[in-house]
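Why does residue order matter? Because the sequence determines the fold. Keep that principle in mind as you read this record.
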Amino acid sequence: MIIYKDIVTGDEIISDTYNLIEKEGAVYEVDCKKVTLGAENFDIGANPSAEEAEEGVDDSSKQVIDVVDGFRLNFLGDEASGSRAFNTKKEYMSQLKTYMKKVVEKLKENGGSEEDIKAFQSGAQNYFTKHIAPNFKDFDFYTGESMDPDGMVVLLNYREDGITPYVTIWKGGLTEMKV
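Structure:
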């Protein structure tokens, strides 16, 4: 199995156990699933006591997105109110430009060719223009476990069916760790 980590922070972002769909040579789109946590019902075969009121269990189940939960990604914003960290494209672009500069530095440090780096930058710009900018209001933003403000911001949206969540991950910002 390969775990992909953020090249800047070292946070685990995704693994090859998910279907990574490469787009524009610059990002991976990964379809996710909503899963329910905390709804376990353990039947131990005992009957409830006739003298006691039925012992109800506090059902504190909640629905989460598997990739977000599995890789301990943190919502950027206030989940209770639904406010997001980036309210405008300009705010997000500022963070993205800073992050991309760090990614390019890391790619150069790791011996990446100028050709590969330019291809990544061009693909990232094309993807942003075609997919992120026109649908910006639909995205939620997540960061890795360390919550490092300089790290990758993972974008979450829903497919055209309105049901299937997917994340967008910057391919050039990942390093591989084989386990």
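The helical segments are 66-70, 89-109, 114-132.
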